[in-house]
Design goal:
Elements lengths: L12 E2 L2 E2 L3 E2 L5 E3 L8 E7 L10 H6 L23 E3 L5 E3 L5 E3 L6 E2 L2 E2 L5 E7 L8 H17 L4 E4 H4 L13 H8 L12
Parallel strand pairs: 3-7, 5-11, 5-12, 6-11
Antiparallel strand pairs: 1-2, 4-8, 6-7, 9-10
């Protein structure tokens, strides 16, 4: 029995697509395993090239259209096929690449709350930024609204960073991310958040 919500069309959602996001379909996704419940929101940070903001390189990466020769750094990630459900720009603009009812490819080798393969039952949210650096007020505003909407549609029980599900391998979003601000915005109990951030 699948715990995925039934397809709906309402003020916030059109199936697994959030109506307040700009839609750009990624080919990098697949079905969630049978019975998977979307109960984890997974926060990442990304910028391409690292530390440079405002371009369309992240969108191109998630849609397999990035020019690997456009910057020396891109050669180190050449051929990667990845995606996230959402991407929040520095100005708060929100993009969506994969339906939340589907499995995006953002967590990689991962484990959290006693389960491996976090892609199976999580929604990936990328913030435009550099791991360890700070994020903008507009990003927190968009992120708060998005997490609240996800919590209304899915049985969300946990919010964590990539660093919490792949420690030693990933360090984003890093110490510049204000977990307390997100928790205050949402008004959710500390039990939703990683212990070291509560």
């Amino acid at each position: 029995m699948s715990l995925a919500p039934a397809p709906t069309r309402d003020g916030l959602w059109d199936g697994g697509w959030y109506r307040f996001a700009r839609r750009l379909d990624s080919p990098n996704y697949g079905p969630r395993p049978p019975g998977a419940a979307v109960d984890l929101l997974l926060i990442h940070s990304i910028s391409l090239p690292p530390g440079q903001y405002g371009g369309d390189e992240v969108q191109r990466l998630f849609t397999n259209t990035l020019d690997w020769n456009a910057h020396p750094y891109f050669k180190s990630i050449e051929g990667m096929q990845v995606s996230s459900h959402f991407y929040v720009r520095r100005n708060g603009e929100l993009w969506q690449f994969v339906s939340c009812d589907e499995r995006a490819w953002h967590a990689g080798v991962s484990s959290y709350r006693g389960r491996d393969n976090c892609n199976d039952d999580s929604v990936g949210i990328e913030l435009e930024g550099l791991e360890g650096a700070s994020f903008e007020a507009a990003q927190y505003e968009t992120l708060g609204s998005l997490c609240a909407a996800l919590g209304q549609r899915y049985p969300v029980q946990h919010i964590a960073g990539h660093e919490h599900v792949a420690p030693g391998r990933k360090a984003d979003p890093g110490p510049g991310f204000q977990w307390a601000e997100l928790q205050q915005t949402l008004g959710w109990s500390s039990r939703y958040f990683p212990e070291e951030t509560a």
